[in-house]
């Protein structure tokens, strides 16, 4: 589902940036939703045009059945998602970390949408390097998890962060602007959660 503007209507596009917020959780509600809302509020306060893509409301098979060797038709929701990514100048990904990595739904979204010919292309059939096709875009990552920062980064190696920045976005030409962790979620006080929401709003306003 793609949401445009504050009431579902397409807003007028002026001097502000075109921002696509991608909510990468299958849950129907929760703190990631609140973070996305706060981020959008901050972005709109600076007259940016914001649209939202809620992966949990899209209808698609998240499994790349034949790998990249066999074509798999894109569902209408994924074709629309590609159009929205092309439209955007800036992307904001909001998602939880589960088992140290990306939620399966978000991983499946990348597998199905960031395809050769859309996100990258090989220069020659034998070439192991590829040319990024989504250059000129930036991204913010707003991530929730239950670990302390030092434990996730130093003891576990922050695999989801490395994958997003170095293995997905960067190679496709998208420059990560901010990677903000909201953690540990478990046991966080209401005061702490409100401070996190304020930080998300600030990030949206700083685009």
From TrEMBL:
Pfam families assigned: Flavodoxin_2 (PF02525)
Record-level GO cellular component terms: cytosol
Annotated ranges, domain Flavodoxin-like fold: 17-202
GO molecular function terms attached to this record: NAD(P)H dehydrogenase (quinone) activity
Position of the signal peptide: none
Key word Oxidoreductase present: yes
Domain of life assignment: Bacteria
UniProt keyword annotations, A-Z: Oxidoreductase
KW Oxidoreductase (keyword) present: yes
Matches recorded under InterPro entries: Flavodoxin_fold, Flavoprotein-like_sf, NAD(P)H_dehydrogenase_qn
Similarity comment: family membership: Belongs to the NAD(P)H dehydrogenase (quinone) family.
Official protein name in the record: NADPH-quinone reductase (Modulator of drug activity B)
Species this protein is from: Pseudomonas delhiensis
């Amino acid at each position: 589902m793609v949401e445009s503007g504050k009431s579902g209507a397409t807003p007028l596009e002026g001097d502000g940036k075109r921002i696509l917020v991608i909510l990468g959780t299958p849950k129907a509600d929760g703190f990631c939703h609140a973070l996305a809302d706060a981020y959008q509020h901050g972005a709109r306060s600076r007259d940016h045009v914001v649209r939202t893509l809620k992966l949990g409301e899209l209808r698609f098979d998240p499994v790349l059945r034949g790998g990249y060797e066999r074509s798999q038709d894109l569902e209408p929701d994924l074709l629309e998602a590609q159009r929205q990514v092309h439209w955007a100048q800036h992307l904001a990904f909001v998602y939880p970390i589960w088992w140290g990595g990306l939620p399966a739904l978000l991983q499946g979204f990348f597998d199905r949408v960031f395809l050769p010919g859309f996100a990258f292309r090989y220069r020659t059939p034998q070439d192991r390097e590829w040319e990024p096709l989504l250059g000129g875009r930036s991204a913010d990552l707003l991530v929730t998890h239950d670990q302390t920062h030092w434990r996730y980064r130093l003891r576990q190696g922050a695999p989801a962060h490395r994958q997003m920045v170095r293995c997905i976005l960067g190679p496709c030409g998208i420059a990560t602007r901010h990677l903000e962790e909201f953690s540990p979620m478990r046991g966080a006080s209401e005061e702490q959660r409100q401070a996190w929401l304020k930080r998300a709003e600030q990030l949206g306003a700083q685009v």
